[in-house]
DNA sequence: TCATTTTTGTTAATCAAATCACATTTACAG
DNA sequence: CTGTAAATGTGATTTGATTAACAAAAATGA
């Protein structure tokens, strides 16, 4: 079953980065093959779920043998496009944005923040990790010279809709926001939220009840 | 239907913090009532999903009228225990941990990082936002004087299992980790991951395919 | 080579969540 | 007070994901 033929379930796609990372770690440790049962132990996913997930990307395994780690990495890497670096823009270089920029996905060679923007004149012009902080209005122009695949926003809630409107206008279609304010965007634009407060509240709540 | 009687679906609980925050914002803006349809517009959730979620917590609405915002806030606030501050410990005060500590949930009066720990002697003793950075070994003792409801870990992947083992030993049961390394813990301990890299990869992937 | 064991890939069964559809309740206008 | 419009709460249905069960395929060892 090839990817093109059938729609791959959302959840299977969501797990792909986890599979990919884990397999890379295994390869680094010198392993060459893995069975769904072993992998399941490591990442706490049922082996049968893993096998079904893998099956969406082709007949990747061999009965009585398992999966070739190198082969899986190659296939999944292709889907995740790890060979070409995915350029990202960061909007809002406050405390959180700064931490992201300093780290800049150093463990993930295929993700890279290549431009950064802020509204505060006091920090515009500053360079962090080889990236110059620019006024947001420069983004439009930067797009003509740099391949920006997505945006990470760490601006405060009250500024988010404004910023996102501008991003949409510039043609950005993938946005990850650390502020949980729900924003209005056209159908074609994907917005994800990484809502720390909700995560913590859920953690405590589920410990209490669930 | 009262909360005690029936098990509340996981997803309904997960949405509770979002409902709560949104309702508080509406109250701040002077609104006193809301219909499931309006609320659904704001937070992009189907009205029927909202009504069913709410129904798990009692008969909160009135036909032909909607919901009283103050009443919802009171009920949900009670479930989320917003009246007593939930004390948190932060492990790992690097770039990311520092950003969290400086912000310290200032928009959420019921969450508060009350202690912080790190392994680096160079920063132990430093005070950020009235919290002193201590060696991790001090946590055990701190637990006898302070109510710590959960832990946020921003230590690197390679240190995570070690740190978590210690936390479990101390009796901590709720952990949020920014490092995606899967850890082994007893059944009774809840670990959540907030995996930035996976979030970004999924964002780009779903924009590409889904 | 052949029997045994292992492990996959997938059909069928289960489970959980979202949505539909509508009877019931309440607000409100006249 | 009464009739109409509006909105809830919930059985029934649909959708989607996970898990169980197992036949088919490949490896291994005698
Ligand atoms: N840091 C945390 O612990 C934490 C916790 C929960 C949620 N958040 C969310 O993440 C956001 C960022 O957190 P932070 O601690 O980095 O805040 P911060 O105030 O340190 O940084 C915000 C940055 O955004 C910039 N900014 C404001 N408006 C802008 C605009 N229109 N265009 C470009 N840049 C703009 C500011 O100049 C500032 O540098 C918070 O507002 C919050 O919504 C953070
Ligand atoms: N910052 C990012 O953009 C980013 C992105 C993806 C994932 N992460 C994850 O978050 C983690 C933290 O990120 P960061 O940028 O703050 O890294 P960092 O290196 O700045 O901070 C890590 C901190 O943990 C402390 N530490 C190490 N071992 C410890 C131990 N055993 N006990 C107590 N403290 C210990 C270190 O002293 C340091 O202060 C990363 O390792 C990574 O797994 C971060």
UniProtKB/TrEMBL annotation, chains A, B:
- Compartment annotation: Cytoplasm
Mind telling me which SUPFAM superfamilies this protein's record contains? Answer: NAD(P)-binding Rossmann-fold domains, Winged helix' DNA-binding domain
Ranges annotated as DNA-binding = 18-57
Q: Which UniProt keywords apply?
A: Cytoplasm, DNA-binding, NAD, Repressor, Transcription, Transcription regulation
The record places domain CoA-binding at: 87-180
Instruction: Give residues annotated as binding NAD(+).
Output: 92-97
* Limits of the Rex DNA-binding C-terminal domain: 7-55
Say yes or no: keyword Nucleus present: no
Q: According to the lineage, what is the superkingdom?
A: Bacteria
Q: Does the keyword Repressor apply?
A: yes
Q: What does this protein do?
A: Modulates transcription in response to changes in cellular NADH/NAD(+) redox state.
Instruction: Name the protein family.
Output: Belongs to the transcriptional regulatory Rex family.
Description of how the protein assembles with itself and partners:
Homodimer.
Q: What is this protein called?
A: Redox-sensing transcriptional repressor Rex
Species assigned in the record: Lapidilactobacillus mulanensis
List the taxonomic lineage: Bacteria, Bacillati, Bacillota, Bacilli, Lactobacillales
């Amino acid at each position: 079953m090839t990817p093109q033929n059938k729609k791959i379930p959302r959840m299977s796609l969501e797990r792909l980065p986890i599979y990919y990372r884990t397999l890379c770690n295994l390869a680094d440790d010198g392993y060459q093959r893995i069975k769904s049962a072993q992998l399941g132990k490591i990442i706490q996913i049922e082996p049968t779920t893993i096998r079904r997930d893998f099956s969406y990307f082709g007949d990747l395994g061999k009965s009585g043998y398992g999966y070739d780690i190198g082969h899986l990495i190659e296939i999944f890497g292709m889907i995740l496009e790890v060979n070409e670096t995915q350029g990202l823009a960061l909007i809002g270089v406050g405390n959180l944005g700064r931490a992201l920029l300093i780290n800049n996905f150093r463990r993930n060679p295929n993700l890279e923040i290549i431009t950064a923007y802020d509204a505060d004149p006091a920090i515009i012009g500053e360079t962090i990790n080889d990236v110059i902080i620019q006024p947001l209005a420069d983004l439009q122009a930067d797009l003509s010279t740099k391949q920006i695949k997505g945006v990470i926003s760490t601006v405060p809630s009250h500024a988010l809709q404004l910023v996102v409107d501008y991003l949409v206008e510039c043609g950005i279609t993938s946005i990850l926001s650390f502020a949980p304010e729900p924003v209005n965007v056209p159908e074609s634009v994907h917005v994800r939220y990484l809502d720390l407060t909700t995560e913590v509240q859920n953690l405590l709540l589920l410990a209490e009840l669930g």
